[in-house]
Amino acid sequence: MSTDITATGRTEQRPDGRYIVLTRTFRAPIDDVWAAVTEPDRLARWIGRWTGDPATGKVAVEMLYEGDDVEPEEYTIDTCDAPRQLELTSKGTYGEDAPVTWHLKLDLAEADGVTTLTFAQSMDDPAMAENVGPGWEYYLDRLVAAETGGDPAAVDFVDYYPAMSEHYRTA
Predict the structure, then answer these.
(1) Where are the alpha helices (DSSP H) in 22-171?
(2) Could you tell me the residue ranges of all domains in the chain?
(3) In what order do the strands lie in the sheet with 85-94?
(4) What kind of fold does domain 10-170 have according to CATH?
(5) Low-confidence ranges of the chain (pLDDT < 50)
(6) pTM of this prediction?
(7) Rounded to the nearest 5°, which phi and psi values hold at 84?
(8) Orientation angle between helical segments 129-147 and 30-38, nearest 10 degrees
(9) Residue 16 CB: number of other CB atoms within 10 A?
(10) What would the pLDDT profile of 112-141 be if each residue is shown by its tens digit?
């Protein structure tokens, strides 16, 4: 267990609702970071894989690092402005099968050879943040590891949850 991992996310009120927002930077061109968050093989290294035809406006996403009994969820592609913006919506369940709609927003910007990824997820129920926030910290750090030559498998979820829950509960 690492003790030097600090929660970086924040909550933010936007015109369309409340979001958890996290940022990661990469010494890489924007096209490379875009590929890491959209190409199936690269996505599978750190979070999961998608199947289907994005041209239809929908894909199925299977989370690969959340245990064995995770079913793929359908995501609607709301916005795809490569390589700058991707917005997705999923209608699924959370916790005790409570219905939930999540909007995911990925914004990328490049300056001086550094690409900044700003990730946001809607949080209609603020109580969910204490669980969801640490999860996204974990996955985004796996992305960083995958894209910087590290080993995503070395990123251990126990370093994130429940250690970061209080940060998100009070954010």
Answers:
(1) 30-38, 40-44, 129-147, 165-170
(2) 10-170
(3) 10-14, 17-26, 114-122, 98-111, 85-94, 73-81, 58-63, 48-51
(4) Alpha-D-Glucose-1,6-Bisphosphate; Chain A, domain 4 (3.30.530)
(5) 1
(6) 0.93
(7) -110, -35
(8) 120
(9) 9
(10) 999 999 999 999 888 889 999 999 999 999
